[in-house]
Write a structure and sequence with these properties.
The mean pLDDT is 91. With 344 residues, the chain is an alpha/beta fold. The protein folds into 2 domains: 9-196 and 328-341, Rossmann fold; 199-318, Rossmann fold, CATH 3.40.50. Helix content is 42%, strand content 13%. The chain has helices spanning 9-24, 41-56, 71-80, 92-98, 152-162, 173-182, 199-205, 226-239, 256-265, 274-282, 297-306, 319-341; strands spanning 31-34, 83-87, 102-105, 134-140, 167-170, 188-189, 216-220, 242-246, 268-271, 287-289, 312-313. The chain contains 12 helices and 11 strands. α8 links the parallel β7 and β8. It is globular, with a radius of gyration of 20 Å.
């Protein structure tokens, strides 16, 4: 179980990576293809009314619409990720239908209310409350270094639900403290699934994409601003590089393989994205991370501290040391997952 596999490249690739790791361990993973709640006429009307009212006071908000994978992302997901039938809600009957022996929640920001308003209870497996099955959280993320989005009622309920998990592991170091202080469990700190694979694994995926003949700076920005644009241009000018900009939404024309190749072929990267930072590290590219407080800086800060890196790692990075740390932490994370699964 993870966030919907729509058009978030990092979200798709973390699920791809976890499934590959599980297969290598002799498991048969299936991802529940949650596509979001059905859009009833009432929900559409309420959303439209709220949007109009907010726009009247000068606040921007898009009309409610059901997100769907674009054609290229849909092709990758179908080719590389084993899916259940598409569902608009989580339920125990689907788990029985799949014949699952273990349910794994993660990775990505599955425990952040902001991104899981309709499914936050499901991400703690409340829908399996009375069903006897092994429960695991792998690299689950709160996205923030706090749980201010949670109510006291939720905290109390999730403490009881997490007590039934055989393994609770989180993606950020701050998540370990949150689990201990508020949710009453001892969590393990593990790597995001994308970091469990090697550069060579991703090179094989994107080998169909021709190498770029142009040297460039890759600007992967999820939230644009003039300030960020100026920083990109400043780095590009200092490096004497052309700029190639790309993002992640339904309008983005890149396939997953082409998205990977943007990192593969870049001379350096400027990004405000967690997985943009991850793949800069995987491909050993000098990078500069721009702050993105709304999406959650705790994720990136934890990631960088794991590899002894800074927000500005354009110069002087010892990639040999970084790769050694990644290999060591990947082995450790896999051992933790194996233990949770009960395999040697």
């Amino acid at each position: 179980m993870t966030q919907p596999l729509h058009n978030n490249y990092g979200g798709i690739l973390q699920n791809y990576a976890l499934q590959k790791v599980l297969r290598d361990m002799g498991q048969e993973p299936v991802t529940i293809d949650y596509v979001g709640r059905r859009l009833t006429y009432l929900r559409v009307f309420i959303s439209a009314l709220k949007t109009i009212l907010l726009r009247c006071v000068g606040k921007k908000r898009s009309f409610l619409r059901r997100n769907k994978r674009n054609r290229k992302n849909s092709r990758f997901v179908k080719e590389y990720i084993a899916l259940s039938r598409s569902v608009s809600s989580y339920n125990v009957d689907l788990v029985k239908e799949i014949g699952a022996e273990v349910v794994i929640v993660g990775s990505d920001q599955v425990w952040r209310v902001r991104y899981n308003r309709d499914t936050i209870n499901d991400m703690y497996l409340k829908f399996l409350e009375n069903y006897p099955i092994k429960r695991i959280a792998y690299a689950a993320s709160f996205g923030m270094d706090n749980i201010h989005e949670y109510t006291q009622k939720q905290i109390s309920e999730y403490r009881k639900l997490l007590a039934r998990f055989v393994l609770v592991s989180v993606r950020e170091k701050s998540g370990v403290d949150i689990c201990k202080t508020y949710l009453g469990v001892q969590a393990e700190h593990v790597l995001d699934p994308t970091l469990l694979l090697t550069m060579e694994d991703y090179l094989k995926l994107c080998e169909v994409v021709p190498l770029s003949e142009t040297k460039y700076l890759a600007a992967y920005l999820l939230d644009k601003s003039s300030e960020k644009n100026n920083l990109v241009n400043e780095v590009a000018k200092n490096k004497r590089l052309k700029v190639k900009k790309f993002t992640a939404d339904t309008r983005c024309g890149f396939s997953v393989e082409e998205w990977l190749a943007m990192f593969r072929d870049a001379e350096c990267v400027v990004t405000d994205s967690f997985h943009g930072t991850v793949f800069s590290i995987i491909f050993n590219k000098p990078f500069k991370v721009l702050s993105n407080a709304i999406r959650g800086n705790a994720r990136i800060e934890s990631l960088l501290s794991t590899f002894n890196l800074e927000m500005d790692s354009i110069e002087g990075t010892d990639w040999g040391e970084v790769n050694d740390i990644r290999e060591e932490q990947a082995d450790r994370s896999k051992k933790i997952l194996r233990k949770g699964l009960g395999i040697g």
